[in-house]
Amino acid sequence: MKKNKKFIIVITVLCLFLIVFTYKYSNYMEKSNFEISQLDWSGEGKFWADNSKFNNYNIKFQFFNGKDIKQITSHKSSYDMKINSKVKSGDLLVKIYNDQKTLYEEKSPINKTINISDKDNKNIKIELTGIKAKGQTKIIFK
């Protein structure tokens, strides 16, 4: 009887471990589908924090007067971009484009999700243009 209880406990613990490992692995694989690289930065920025990594483009700034351009490389054929951009003062333009066309362009504040189709997903660039802007822009790729 004691052997059966131990066996059941061991199997239960192994199953829980397997579930947690599978979740962590799938979460990691989802995040590693994207690469964010800096293409250009010009202008003036104070208290500029760039916490972009994996599937998360995240920029915070107290003062931004200039242009920041990043390239997004995706290992997925199509995906969504959830854009959340808040500006406390000044102006901030968010532009998303590829080599052929502008896919999205709007001034902050923005709370929107756009789809990048398999036809448009090559050489995607995100361009922030700030004019005495204070705020934050966060884009999550799914």
Characteristic terms for this protein:
single chain, elongated
In short:
With 142 residues, the protein is of the alpha+beta class. It has one helix at 2-31; strands spanning 34-46, 49-50, 56-74, 79-97, 102-107, 110-116, 124-141. Strands 1, 2, 3, 4, 5, 6 and 7 form a 7-stranded antiparallel sheet that branches.
What does this structure look like?
This protein has 142 residues and is an alpha+beta fold. Helix content is 21%, strand content 59%. The protein has one helix at residues 2-31; strands at 34-46, 49-50, 56-74, 79-97, 102-107, 110-116, 124-141. Strands 1, 2, 3, 4, 5, 6 and 7 form a seven-stranded antiparallel β-sheet that branches. The longest helix has 30 residues, at 2-31. It is elongated and about 75 Å long.
Write down the overall mean pLDDT: 87
Could you give the distance between the termini? 49 Å
- The portion of residues assigned to helices is 10-25%
Radius of gyration: 21 Å
* Amount of beta strand: over 45%
Low-confidence stretches: none
Number of helices: 1
Shape: elongated
Derived from helix and strand composition plus strand pairing, the structural class reads: alpha+beta
Largest sheet: 7 strands, antiparallel
Topology as a string of helices (H) and strands (E): HEEEEEEE
